[in-house]
């Protein structure tokens, strides 16, 4: 089992979700994160005092996938999340030992 | 007709109108963020429901321009008959009857709204609407007649209500008719609906304390219309009421947070806001009958007693979620009874003297009788009405709805969506709005079908 | 001079002033959290821009103390000449002219503010400022003259506007001059600026529904100044207007949520707030010409019709983001026309009788003529002004700014920062404030250069 | 007694009362979300503390009904003696003394509240309470006497304060007594408490800009009571003050954001709100002495100068957190001095002519003298009081409390809990409410012990 | 060392915490996430326009555990978080190379 | 490739960021979390009713690093985030199989 983690621009989520669904991946967990990287933040001004906001809002998408789907899932997410502009994000994959569906206690592939 | 008095009564009516939204925020800030809209709605809707009923028959049941039996005023003035172009009040200080009608309406609006705090986080909206309609009809309109309808005010031959004219208990602006009335009904409904899941161990803390303070501030502001406006003239008595209201509120605010400091170790914002409201409640019946020093004592007592009284529900085991009992019932009783001690005819020739001003015990017994009558009538009435609604259409949302949030379940809304604040569009909850329906169809709202199609794409 | 009337008009002017911030919150709560500041600013800025223009020439163009051609009042009173120390209004109810000037200013402030709801989430701030300045000059000031300037009111020899004095259509507080006027201009700008990205399928839902209700409540409160204040005296007529306003608003609130219950399955908070506003809009022209029962019908009709009318934009494909058309244009037309049916001279001797009170069809045609004239003039005018601004300086932010948020792009601000609430300082966005610039430099604001240095350290 | 005037003064008193909560939101929105409650409380508590002190001796020290030495009014009217049932003001425009007492109380409440902005994010609550009590006693009550107590107003034999009656400097509504007074004290406390950790490089940005605008709007609204109410009659002078207040505020709003546009590249919401307040501050002393065109200039100057003055603190190194100096001290001085140029007896026969209206330099020197006297007295007094409090009970929270948030440390509360909004109950912070304490115990609040038990289970 | 990650219904957190404490696991890190899966979202309506909210609020619980405790921890969490209804969530376990306690620099088991 | 995850006190973020930059690590993803451990929460009181808030606000910092930089990155973060008081947090490292930069599709080291 693998865990695919993607940091993407917030407004691409719909496309990412659709791309995963096309691979038959119908579950995911999303969280709000802030990213720092090549993409610049922005500046705010309050009563003449400038505030540099370094971080940019991103979404983190986590999807558990079977080992042999991982590579295709990565490709699908990368394609769906790409705008071609700086700050499009990263996708990475990590190994997973155990997966359980809480409701049933099913494990492994059946847990997805 | 006196334009200065009219200006003051109209301004006061507007101020009292603002109290209901103020109350909505006072209460709304205290509940969890998934039931705040339901709380706001339970308050705001009283403006709609009571606003219409008042026109139809509410004013007429409460205030009679002729005859009457002391219990309810009848239907002479239904549909606001005899109110357009007529005057009310004593010569020299007469105002258009409609100004009085509107001023009194706002009292009828906020009283049921006060009740809603007892049943936060778990109430079916339409059941509440029905309760409001029935409760004001059967309880509030008669009680307002008892307390507020002085014989001769709205017509030379009117008899007026028994508390104001026969018993002659003092209630300047509604300690009995508004606060004890609402507090007793709140207790009844808390019993009817039962405790929230997890109460008392696991309930949410207030989700928006600044909004609690905003609500308390709007209430305080509007309360000047409520209390000083109840003089129904811009003169000495209104100025006395304005002063006693201010002093008692200030004192109660301090009293409450001092209790907190000793009991809990810290003074809180919620406590300061609650203390102010407790003071406003307690001074309401007394504001035109006591002098500023009397108001100071009433305020201190109210702040301290109400702060302690909020613990009652844990002791007795009823989930009066936002302390309608602790603040409005207890505060209303404190103020109504203390008139018996502090009343002085020095501020109001139509008033009298309490125990501390040489007036003996008689006024105190009258005050207790009035408080008891309203308390009992309202409590029993609300219990019966609430029980029937609960048995028939149900008064409480399902357990799932209570966990998921009443807002979503009852109103198909959520209060806040902040996540998109500093980023691109939040697509977690990105809306899928309805596609324009086909132009050939007649004017119709976006059909759910169209929407679901849309969201599938 | 009548102090009671003056007190009421001054209080009313203050109440109407509060409506513009109220509107800002009503609208601001409905947009997304990344464009709420822009929406607040589009409203708040009208207080600044129109406040100054009114002094310079706005009042003068709208209200003439002598002469006039019925279309625009001229420049006799520029710089508020002839207003200090003079009186306006009929003997016995005369008030200082400046009280009238201020009361009317607040109408001129809120009317352009109303338009802003049609172009939420995408407007360049300075272009909006320019639009407001030109639109009030070319459209609002003349139209206010047509509708609000009764000959003889501000000076014995003044001619006044054609709708009020020649056509004799009834518009007590601005159904045409304010609501139809703003609604038509809103439609024009929605067309000029075009749809938001993703509309109608993917736009944000309201980010702060409690603030919508706060705004609606402040609007309702302030509207008593708007409507009852338009009597310009504290007496019978003001009391009538207060009453009809209350009744219609209550009824419209109920009407709207009943539609929702049947159409969508749930009554919503946004619907209740919207219904109240729809009722307030519709009763505005009628409030001093109809009786309470007439107001009830007007309110119900407004609530139902406006609730349905918000679906129009999806059908016709224009992105009137916050339903300025559905609520203000439609509501304004409803109220203006229903006067033709429900007007009764029983409440206002200067009024007349509509169809249902034996007055025949004539008043209805006059009402329609007034509504049509203002609608057409405002729509065409706004279209032309908006088009020119769009072609020259641009009226809409870039696509990137629209995604990232108008607040950041146009105002270099974000509305909320809650993340630090329960923890140590949030350093995600930790500010890097400017280092004190060198003491030798003359007084000057923190220079960006210094700041960037600071942030690099 | 004049009912119209009384109606206006009572309404004005209510409006000014609302300014303190308005200020609380104006300030509260600017601080971080972990110290917003402390900021709200520092403002709200002044209603309690000063409300009670005013009754006891505050009014008496400020306003004397007989005798006096020009510096302080004495204790003749302690406990509001001689105020019930008496009249104040000139014949024909007389009002109940208590109406005047309440109107003036609200000034005494908001003045110390204004100071709190200088010491945001780091103040011990009870130390602040003590400071308020001492500062109003030693500084505000005397200064109010100097500036606001006109001989003969509250009693035929009263002497009144030296600035109003001997120096004859003009201060219509409190440019010196309120704004310079509070601004100077704010500067003193900013020095006493010292800079916040990390200032100026690392401090939070405003956590809720909409609430800043809400606060500014309520302030603007209430300010009509403050300024136009200071005429103490509903007539010409009140109308003039209403007009000049509106014009100056509009102009200052524009002035501030134009500075921002040139200096920072964008006009901000915080700037618009701040500009409006700067205009309101500057016109406060002048509003009853200048004509509308004079008000326009005062507004523009105030907007521009205050916008630039907020940079001073970075240059001079004091952490006046929310710019009490930049807005209230500087704005108050601007307005007080510009009276010397723009005053015209054309709007107020009790006024005079400034330099630009042929009045010579004399008025300007008087204005400067009044400003200087109040500034110096308040600054030194606040410095001493603050220093003593700091040395004895401490005025500043611990460094840990400053990082963790003053709300938690001083009030055991947090302002917001939004996380449960769209889900089941948020259990991150799920409350563990006290188990009902044993029924055998006497009525007592939920004991901490019981709670901890509860939370352990 | 292992990292146990659990996506659970928010109101089960107390039980999950208690279950872990029973195993002697006294530390955890929690974050707010939104999940997509078999469990349906809900619909909101604003002025007649429907908004489909696909995601459901969940909590993510992360617990570092020793290798040999992992299996028992998984069982404990699954049991505590189970309501038996759709949307109960997932639990998964991933390998961890290094663990350090920031305060002391202690590594491995001592860092917990 | 390795993923370094650090749970730290919020106000140390600037220092953590600076420390990572010194190692040439110019990207990271941050999220708001709440931690439970030795550090106590706090108590709030509303109308006399006490609410025990068990969790403490923390930040989670995630950084993808090359295998041979991992150890140095851990040291740097630990040093930067340390205040020496309870609750300073944890740092852990997990293995990563695949890393992709969404914008370009670059993989591995080039993706950082
Ligand atoms: N080394 C890293 N570890 C973890 N997250 C990273 C790393 N570098 C970048 N990110 C995340 O990826 C996002 C995009 O990275 P950025 O460098 O701005 O653009 P791009 O990936 O297009 O070159 C960042 O906002 C951050 O959330
Ligand atoms: N493939 C997946 N990868 C990551 N998280 C998932 C995945 N599938 C489901 N989840 C998470 O688990 C939660 C519950 O899943 P769901 O399918 O709704 O119910 P159940 O697990 O009971 O079948 C989801 O809300 C989501 O947060
Ligand atoms: N076993 C664990 N698994 C995951 N996170 C943990 C664990 N133990 C502690 N944490 C996280 O580390 C933070 C600090 O831990 P704590 O025990 O309070 O202090 P310290 O690490 O200084 O001993 C916690 O708030 C929590 O976020």
Give a short overview.
The complex is a heterohexamer, with three copies of chain A (112 residues) and three copies of chain B (457 residues). Chain A is of the alpha+beta class.
How would you describe this structure to a colleague?
The complex is a heterohexamer, with three copies of chain A (112 residues) and three copies of chain B (457 residues). Chain A has two helices and seven strands, in the order βαββββαββ. A four-stranded antiparallel sheet of chain A has the order 2-5-1-6, with helices on one face. In chain A, strands 3-4 form a two-stranded antiparallel ribbon. Chain A has 112 residues and is an alpha+beta fold. Helix content of chain A is 22%, strand content 42%. With 457 residues, chain B is mainly alpha-helical. Chain B has 16 helices and four strands. Chain B has helices at residues 3-28, 36-62, 97-115, 125-148, 162-167, 175-193, 209-228, 236-264, 269-286, 292-309, 312-316, 324-342, 362-392, 399-404, 406-411, 448-456; strands at 66-67, 87-88, 95-96, 157-158. In chain B, β2 and β3 form a beta hairpin. Chain B is globular and about 60 Å long. The N and C termini of chain B lie far apart (67 Å). The interface between A and F is medium-sized, with 36 and 22 residues. β7 of chain A pairs antiparallel with β6 of chain E.
Q: Secondary-structure map with pairings?
A:
The complex is a heterohexamer, with three copies of chain A (112 residues) and three copies of chain B (457 residues).
Chain A lengths: L1 E7 L4 H10 L5 E9 L5 E5 L2 E5 L2 E10 L1 H15 L7 E7 L2 E4 L11
Antiparallel strand pairs in A: 1-5, 1-6, 2-5, 3-4
Helix pairs in contact in A: 1-2
Chain B lengths: L2 H26 L7 H27 L3 E2 L19 E2 L6 E2 H19 L9 H24 L8 E2 L3 H6 L7 H19 L15 H20 L7 H29 L4 H18 L5 H18 L2 H5 L7 H19 L19 H31 L6 H6 L1 H6 L36 H9 L1
Parallel strand pairs in B: 1-4
Antiparallel strand pairs in B: 2-3
Helix pairs in contact in B: 1-2, 1-3, 1-7, 2-3, 2-4, 3-4, 3-6, 4-6, 4-13, 6-12, 6-13, 7-8, 7-9, 8-9, 8-10, 9-10, 9-12, 10-12, 12-13
The structure holds adenosine-5'-diphosphate (3 copies).
């Amino acid at each position: 089992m693998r865990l695919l983690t993607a940091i993407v621009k917030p407004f691409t989520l719909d496309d990412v979700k659709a791309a995963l669904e096309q691979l038959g991946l119908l579950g995911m967990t999303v969280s709000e994160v802030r990213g720092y990287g090549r993409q610049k933040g922005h500046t705010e001004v309050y009563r003449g005092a400038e505030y540099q906001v370094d971080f940019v809002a991103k979404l983190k998408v986590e999807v558990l996938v079977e080992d042999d789907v991982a590579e295709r899932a990565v490709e699908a997410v990368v394609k769906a999340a790409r705008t071609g502009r700086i700050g499009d994000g990263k996708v990475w994959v990590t190994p997973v030992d155990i997966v359980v569906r809480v409701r049933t206690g099913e494990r492994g592939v059946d847990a997805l | 007709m006196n334009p200065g008095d009219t200006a003051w009564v109209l301004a006061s009516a507007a101020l009292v109108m603002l109290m209901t939204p103020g109350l909505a925020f006072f209460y709304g800030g205290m509940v969890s963020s998934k039931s705040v809209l339901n709380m706001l709605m339970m308050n705001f809707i009283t403006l709609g429901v009571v606003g219409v009923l008042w026109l139809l028959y509410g004013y007429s049941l409460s205030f009679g321009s002729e005859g009457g039996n002391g219990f309810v005023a009848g239907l002479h003035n239904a549909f606001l008959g005899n109110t357009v172009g007529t005057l009310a009040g004593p010569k020299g200080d007469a105002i258009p009857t409609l100004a009085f009608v509107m001023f009194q309406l706002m009292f009828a609006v906020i009283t049921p709204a006060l009740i809603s705090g007892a049943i936060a986080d778990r109430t079916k909206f339409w059941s509440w609407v029905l309760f409001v309609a029935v409760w004001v009809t059967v309880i509030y309109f008669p009680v307002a007649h008892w307390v507020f309808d002085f014989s001769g005010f709205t017509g030379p031959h009117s008899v007026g209500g028994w508390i104001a004219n026969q018993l002659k208990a003092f209630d300047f602006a509604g300690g009995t008719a508004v606060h004890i009335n609402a507090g007793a009904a709140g207790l009844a409904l808390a019993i009817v609906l039962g405790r929230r899941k997890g109460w008392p161990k696991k309930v949410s803390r207030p989700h928006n304390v600044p909004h609690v303070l905003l609500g308390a501030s709007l209430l305080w502001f509007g309360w000047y219309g409520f209390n000083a406006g109840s003089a129904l003239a811009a003169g000495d008595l209104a100025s006395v009421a304005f002063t006693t209201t201010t002093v008692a509120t200030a004192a109660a605010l301090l009293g409450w947070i001092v209790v907190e400091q000793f009991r809990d170790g810290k003074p809180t914002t919620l406590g300061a806001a609650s203390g102010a409201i407790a003071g406003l409640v307690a001074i309401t019946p007394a504001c035109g009958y006591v002098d500023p020093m009397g108001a100071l004592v009433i305020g201190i007592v109210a702040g301290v007693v109400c702060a302690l009284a909020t613990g009652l529900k844990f002791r007795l085991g009823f989930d009066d979620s936002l302390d309608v009992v602790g603040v409005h019932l207890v505060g209303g009783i404190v103020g109504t009874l203390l008139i018996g001690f502090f009343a002085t005819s020095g501020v109001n020739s139509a008033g009298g003297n309490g125990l501390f001003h040489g007036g003996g015990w008689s006024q105190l017994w009258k005050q207790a009788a009035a408080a008891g009558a309203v308390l009992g009538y309202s409590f029993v009435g609300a219990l019966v009405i609430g029980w029937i609604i609960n048995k028939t259409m149900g008064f409480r949302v399902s357990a799932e709805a209570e966990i998921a949030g009443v807002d979503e379940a009852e109103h198909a809304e959520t209060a806040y969506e902040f996540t998109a604040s500093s980023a691109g569009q939040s697509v977690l909850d990105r809306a899928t709005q309805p596609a324009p329906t086909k132009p050939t169809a007649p004017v119709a709202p976006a059909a759910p079908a169209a929407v679901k199609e849309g969201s599938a794409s």
